[in-house]
Amino acid sequence: MDAFYSLPLTVPAYQQLANNVLPIVAGEQSQRPMVPDWHAPAVRVLHDFSSKPPLQLTPQTSLAEAEAQLLGHGEFDAAVTNSDGQLVGIIALQHIHSRKTLDLAQQQQLRWEQLQVEDAMIAVTQLPAVSCSQVQQARIGDVVATLQQLGNHYLLVHTKDAVRGIISALAIHRVTQENVPLQPPLFPFVESVDESVANSTEQA
């Protein structure tokens, strides 16, 4: 990959908190312009929780309700938070109807809609983390290189004391309109999710 580098992962100090839960920076909503390519600043693809609070679901939310909430809000992913509002995981539309959830429902002899968010989410302890200062100095292509090196679809972005936001491969694709080749692959899932969210937004 031309001229891009992989960001070094960090271990946030707040990961020492009990139960591996993380506080989320709160703030007001705002909008940012689209960016054209991977040479643009990486902050342009950061879902900054301080300016746009994430949709929040609980681990006990049913997958059917989680899907309805995501589509109803026009979101592709949501923060999974405990009763104290601390981040415990990330749930995305592609997780809800994944092979994992279908297999789990079959193994437990449950209907799919009886499964909960905690059955499908990515736990916060499984998310690679980089500091906000690193992201502020990086380009989108550097983040792509990092995701490709890790084979991961998400990067958690943190300050010293809290989660600042998250960067996803899907967000990069939507902003730049460029494929982000990963294993497991992101595509052709993107097209189907884009259509689902677009339809839900039109009906709202």
TrEMBL record:
Domain CBS as annotated: residue spans: 48-96
SUPFAM superfamilies named in the record: CBS-domain pair
Coiled-coil region(s): none
Name assigned to this protein: CBS domain-containing protein
